[in-house]
Amino acid sequence: PQLFSQYCDTQLVRKVRSVYDTHTSRPSKLQRDISTTLVQIGWEHESEYVTEDGLSLDMAQPGSKRGVEVDGPTHFVRDVSTRESKSTWVENGSTRLKSRLLEARGWTLIHVPFFEWHRLAEHERAAYLEAELKEAGFFTVR
User: Fold this and answer.
1) How far apart are CA 13 and CA 44, in angstroms?
2) CA distances from 135 to 31, 95, 129, 130, 138 (A)
């Protein structure tokens, strides 16, 4: 991918890009559910969008550089350093880095953490996403 080309041998970059381009992504059920709900509330998007730099977004509106990232359990680590009886979820380093790289390239993102989505009753999920989109400026009140 272009993002890494300044640091790597050109032949290696071509080989990595070739493998990346032939990789077929398989969205999780969580991601498919969120995508479906976004369409239901009127936020059309491309799923599994890949930027010119080779960064992927779960759902994107490339023209406006707006994206929704569905953050499942592998996007987090447990913070057990708190004095609370329960540990808390904290974004892991690779998720933070990817967000920073996308934001540095002009993308605006919202993240939907799995634990927030699963905490909602099914009838609350559309309103949750609509509120998140509005707060990020992706959406105006209908």
Assistant:
1) 33
2) 21, 21, 10, 9, 8
- Which residues on adjacent β-strands are paired with residue 60? 46, 67
pLDDT for res 141: 47
List the one residue out of 25, 68, 20 whose CA is nearest residue 46. Answer: 68
Q: What are phi and psi of 55, to 5 degrees?
A: -90, 135
What is the distance between the alpha carbons of residues 13 and 19, in angstroms, rounded to a whole number?
Answer: 10
Dump the DSSP string for 4-47: HHTTS-HHHHHHHHHHHHHPPP---HHHHHHHHHHHHTT---EE
Backbone angles phi, psi at 113, to 5 degrees: -70, 140
pLDDT of 37-51, one tens digit each?
999 999 999 999 999
Residues 6+ apart with CB under 8 A from 130: 41, 139
Which is nearest to 58 in space by CA: 77, 94, 17, 30? 30
